[in-house]
Amino acid sequence: MSDLYKVAIVGSGPAGLSAAAHAAALGMSHVLLEKTDHLSDTIYKYQKGKHVMATPSNLVLRSDFEFDAGKRETILGIWDEQAAAQNVNVMMNAEVAKVEGEKGDFAITLKNGETVRAETIVLSIGTQGNPNMLRCPGADSPMIQYQLDDPGEYFDEHITVVGSGDAGIENALGLAADDAQRNVVTILNRGDSFARAKAANVALLEEAEQDGRISVRRETTPAEVADGKMVLETRDGQETIACNRIIARTGSQPPRGFVEAMGIEFTSEERSAFPKLTPAFETTKPGIHVIGALAGYPLIKHCMNQGYDVIEFLNGNEELKPADEPILAEKFAALPGNHDVEYWLGVFGDNVSILEELSTLQLRELMLDSTVHAYEAGDVVFTRNAPGSSMFAIAEGAVAVEVNPDDPSITVPIEQGSIFGEVGLISGRRRGATIRAAEPVVAIELSRTAALKLIATSPGAARAVNRISVERQLLQMFGSGLTKEDVAPLVESAEVMAIRAGQVIIEEGADDKDIFIIRRGSMIVEKAIGGRPVFLSYLPAGSYVGEMAVIDGSLRSATVKAAIKSEVIRLPGEGFMELMERNPRVREQAMTDMANRREINAFIESRKDDFDGAVDMYSETASFLVDQGLGEATDVLLIDEKLCIGCDNCENACADAHEGLSRLDREAGKTYAHLHVPTSCRHCEHPHCMADCPPNAIKRGPDGEVFIDETCIGCGNCQRNCPYGVIRMDPKPPKKPSLLQWLFFGSGPGPGEASAKWRKTNGDPEQPKQAIKCDMCAGIKGGPACVRACPTGAAIRVSPDKFLTFTKITEDVE
Length: 814
Known about the structure:
31% helix, 41 strands, 7-stranded mixed sheet, single chain, alpha+beta, FAD/NAD(P)-binding domain, Jelly Rolls
């Protein structure tokens, strides 16, 4: 049996090392238990030559060890030297098997059979040993590895990195760093932005993508792993790529079983939840403290500060404040009441639903990336149609949403604890309503990056945001005076489902009774006629489907499948029936919708012998248009080639409206039958171009137009992200003279032209460029110039739900 140490520190990562160093500096009896034969296995497992960042830059470092940004090898060397010089008591190859006892006398049994006794324990074991495994067919393939030690060891391979956090990005960059390696590197990101990664890493990845060194696949996940290849689930369906090796960096989970065996409770039952902690890092098991990544705070500088702080607490320093205290104190100074940081953190954590499961450490980190506001009653938080993609959370008070722009007195309240602005966060749309403080309000404004990171890393926050957004979608869709209480049972039973392109959610002839709300993406409805699928209609985001079988108990009358990668809310049919029984107006609306769909089905059945060819043509045309991006469009330019005379008035008019640079290419694009889809922006419901715009220069206007403002820095991310090739990079031409100046004085270029001087320099690679795309002629009287200039009416701009409808069939065949 060993001596009784004041503290035993388990794990020698940055947090544990810093704790042991400070214990040594104070002369505190301590032992640092490391399961490997080297210090800081966390950093040791970083890839060879990795540049380690020291963020956040404005945070003071508290530690008896040095730390600054630098190479992995340099940092490890410095820490080895300092551990020896400062007499840190380290036991190597000391893996902990179990912990028994109580505060004052814990017995730590090692796997080699030895026992270490200590009054208190500090766990800094991180989560690295518990990686999230791939979950797809072939996930046991030897092609998959969860660690990358030396990127320089790999040559002439097709390598796919799964995961777009810092580790995944750094691995991809390392594998593509040396042209001599000739690796073909692809990185998969299941989202459209890099919420989990540091901004500097994202910038390096985007630079590598621009240079063609790395293929970045957004909104893509693994579907299957096979020998020498990988099947991807993309927004448009499945795709197979060559693949010799897969580096899976999909995060890791706390070693929950091991930790709970000590008597430590977690914040929730979620697999990725963290232990409950006091501000002094003490767990629900008295005498055991948790710091570092296991506490939910993985940045190295934060971890090292925690190591220092926990030893200070154990040494009796109860007045010590965290290192970020001055930063947060300055941030909270504008809030009412002259309260301290601890008070406001308590208010935020207790009152805001999306923050309830965050530890104090996680909450502090979130607040460093957020802004706090205090509003008086009547103050405007934001106005209708204002740009903005941040999300607000109400910590105190309530706000009023002005739902009728013509009558500001008609409002809907949002109370304390809830959120607003989530629509702008999810879709990038302008603010849908003016919101004012209904009483004195304290609110947190989370930037888009901070909000997405919170949702990605906190299961509780993700659940809360989902619940609130589902509730609001139900109220918006079914309206009729419904309250939150009316839809509460449906909200509780709702399930948000990710649907891959082409996946069926309703099968014709099936006997299920669920209703689906299309939250994101779009669906197409087909019916089997004469043994072949016939297109019936297109359902954009915001529509619902499936009520017919629920209301009359019939079998499914049509098949509904995703046009593109989508998200739906599944509502149990019995819950919807109960809602209708309690609310006659909802029933009336549902019956009307059902009658319209029955009418379409009946008409198809009655006329199928009369126009089989027309139905075939329409179905094939509809499929073609969906393939060309109408599945996610809000406005698309179509050209009827039976009417088009090739005059190019549309292109010239577009150029004349935009300083000589046309936003469309009439001849480019694909054609089916007589319908042509030229190269012009679709103004997607969820624009891919917005995903990684560093200056946030891409916005959505009040009429749905997606435009690029003057803050564009010419990085080219939007051009690479657009799947339809409708964005190009061009130097900005000089401002054109007026028509009268050109006519009477010959000033500058004429209609549809850029200046001769600019045309000469257009090919100059030194010329600064900006992103160019269709903006639907926003702000120009009369609407899109291309449509107005067409002499034959061949050019039309339509929303897909107006084109892909049954009425088009009747126009063509009757």
